[in-house]
User: Fold these one by one.
Assistant:
Number 1:
Amino acid sequence: MKEWQNNSTGILVIGSSNTDMVVRSNRIPLPGETILGGDFFMNAGGKGANQAVAAARLGGNVAFIGRVGNDIFGEQSITQLKREGIDSEAIITDPVHPSGVALITVDEAGENCIVVAPGANAFLSPSDIIRHRNKIAEADIILLQLEIPLETINEVIALARKNHKKVILDPAPACPLPKEIFTDLFLLTPNKVEAEMLTGVKIGSVSDCERAVQVFKAKGVRNSIITLGESGSYVNSETFSGHIPSVKVRAADTTAAGDVFTAAVAVALAEDQPVEAAVQFATKAAAIAVSRQGAQASAPYRREMGE
Ligand code: RIB
């Protein structure tokens, strides 16, 4: 066991696993344009698997439920998750659909543009979740994102509610959500674009963030954190509300920064850290991720957090 690992930190991540195919280029191409880029690299990604790896590296005791294809990418994803010490016994190998793949362009400023071919991720079904419902019963905190079907997310939330578990939803990639998703949600972690889409509030200031979180509250969300990139984040929780500044770094690649942020918040909350401290911890973890290239490759280890 890792020396910093807390046995009681039961984090279950349910979501996507992809193989990221990344090209660096000076800029993101315009529609219809071909440009010559720089180096190509492949690395493990997927918002769900990224969160699982980040949470494990930061000291969480992590299990993952997802669906991969019966192919080399799926095999590599499972091997990688196991190498990180993640309980992978509930990962399903889909006999028909291929593993998820993401095509990513990263520009000179570290900004990215991502298109995902979801493959097997799109077939993670409510019955897969029901089959592995013991994982929900065993977890303290459940982490979700939106690269798996909404009906599956609904099933997880319903089972979590029945088992009195805390659900954290990172609503990425942005899409309209039915109202039952929000009811009793422990924590929602949208970025600015996602918060705008889900609330209808255009965000340009801290008071806009405050208005947006009130919309989430009215929908039944108990706590929310709007991430604002280099402008930090806005937190609305049962114990702390306010703006938290970012940690300044030179951005190499922003891919997975949001995944690392949410995973880090989950780890800190599972350790009973107060919300403000949890967000500061997550801000630092995301800053380290932004300063490095890749998705899972960029997630920091606990020993790098300088505590
Ligand atoms: O959040 C970053 C992730 O989005 C990438 O790893 C890619 O696979 C997509 O899921």
Number 2:
Amino acid sequence: MNNNIRVRYAPSPTGHPHVGNIRTALFNWLFARHEGGKFLVRIEDTDQARYVEGSVEAILGGLRWLGMDWDEGPEKGGDYGPYFQSQRLEKYQAAAEKLIAGGHAYRCYCSSERLEEMRAAQTAAKQPPGYDRHCRDKCEITPEGITPVVRFRVPLKGRTVFNDLIRGEVSFENALLDDFILLKSDGFPTYHLANIVDDHDMRISHVIRGEEWVSSAPRHVLLYQALGYEPPLYAHLPMILGTDRSKLSKRHGAVSIMDYEEQGYLPETMVNFLALLGWSLDDKTEIMDVKQIIDNFSIERISKTGAIFNVEKLDWMNGSYIRALTLDEFTDRARPFLEAGVPESRAFDRDYIKSALALVQERVKKLGEFRDQPEMTRFFFIENLEYEPIELLGKKMTAASTRTALERSLERLEKLGDFTVESMEADLRSLAEELELKPGQLFGSLRVAFTGLIVSPPLFQTMIVLGREQCLKRLREAVSKSWKLPE
Ligand code: GLU
């Protein structure tokens, strides 16, 4: 246990967490678990206008789905709570007062009209936008009826430098920072103030977050200095890019993490895949279980360059995790998807379902295929197949030869004492020879007869699952359908 290592995932509840947020959560979690430290969840809900109902549940649900347990935070509590920023307002107000008293912040009474005019003038003069420090050096006379905001008094000269554990030294010119707002007129803090007050109060040792926050870091470092606090260590994670190397967006499938669950990716796939978005064990290892990732995780092996989110790789990885499941696990996980796509399957017992699923486990990439391509397994569970007689026609076969082939197959199977893969295969191969057909011609017709499909799981195994009675019944139906074939 390393009690000094404390990291946090600090999402804003502004919608469902997407891949980038969850990758940040994961890297924090992996780091905490590797180091034996603590992983905190803190909800940064001070921006009331952007609050989206239900997002806290979605955030926590995403963490739970991926197995990222948190040591302190919502539902858990902890020594440094509350873990919702909206319940900590007085702490930010106190910090703002402390900064004002120390000469590091000031009240600003500029009206929104004045700020509007200032912005318009800056745009017209092609100047960079930013507060013109109108209230910075005024003595405090409170104008009637205006509730001030509190702004940070950014040093006008010098540079702010910090060491990023991934990027090395990062340095910003102070003159380029404007006197940003700390406390809004409604008494709510801005992200910058709340974030550093909490990171300090919650004894956060390492701030691990996305690269988009690098430009906020100098403001944070200045705030720490002004408050006389030791800043945490920083590690800004590389950007996640699409395969076209542009920033990952919806267009690349950058959807909410729960959409991946919906599509039938396994949580263990997602953990493995997301861990490789910026971190690697070596140059080649792709498949790693969570224990192996935790054991080997280190900030040193996080790269600076953008990480490519490749959906094809994700699908390949998921297929590989699916194949590695025991048949029982696979059955349990696939069943909800199967039931959604093939409600008829509910009437069957688990053993039957299991034997049917065993035939497709090799081929499935996402469990959602059971729901979205129900034809893949539907034939196992329905009484009457729906297909057109024409589909029974074997390759280069006539109506008559197809009918004969089906009739003769029926005769053979009716007589066959031993209903096994080997005996059926031997029997039907010899029949094909007798009929002067290629085995593929005969098996093609039979496949349609038993499954209604041109492409299906292996024919004889499928017949075993369907069972003798069902096979004979389907074959009789096929024979009668074959009479409808145009001569
Ligand atoms: N609330 C910020 C976010 O939504 C946190 C950024 C940080 O980790 O400092 O990502």
